[in-house]
Amino acid sequence: MSLLNRLNQDMKQAMKDKNKQKLSVIRMLKASLQNESIKLGHDLNEEEELTVLAREMKQRKDSLQEFEKAGRNDLADALKDEIVIITDYMPEQLSEEEVKDIVLAAIEQVGAVSKADMGKVMGAVMPKVKGKADGALVNRLVQQNLS
C-alpha cells in the first residue's frame, strides 16, 4: 500500500476517532507529500516519499531541541506527540551496530584513510541508509571510524 493511501485511511480513522492531534499531523504529512509532488512535477516514488518524511521528522526533532532549551515544555510535549505519529510512517530504523557495519563497508569500498575522505564515505553511506538512520548518527560513526 502506498504511503498516500495509508495516510488517507488513517486520516479517515482519526476523523472517526475524533483524534485531532493525529488528524493534524496526517494532514500536514499529506500536504508536504503533495507539495513535493507538485514541485517535482510527478507522483513521488517510495524513495522520494521517505525523503519528505525524513525532512519532516528532522524539522520536528530540531524544533524539539530548541523548545527544550527555551524551557517551553508545553510546545515540546506537542512535538513529541507529533514525532511519535510520524515515526509510525517511517521505515524501521537501523540499529547503531547495523549503521556502523554499513559505514565500515563504505570506508573500505572508497578506500578512505583520513577525515579528508569523509565526504566520499558520507556520499556512499547516505543513499543506503536514507530514511532508516539519522544523519547525525551516520556522521558521528564516520568520524569515529576515520580518526
UniProtKB/TrEMBL annotation:
Transmembrane segments: none annotated. It comes from the Bacteria. GO terms for molecular function: carbon-nitrogen ligase activity, with glutamine as amido-N-donor. It holds the Pfam family YqeY. PANTHER family: ALTERED INHERITANCE OF MITOCHONDRIA PROTEIN 41, MITOCHONDRIAL. This is GatB/YqeY domain-containing protein. It comes from Fictibacillus marinisediminis.
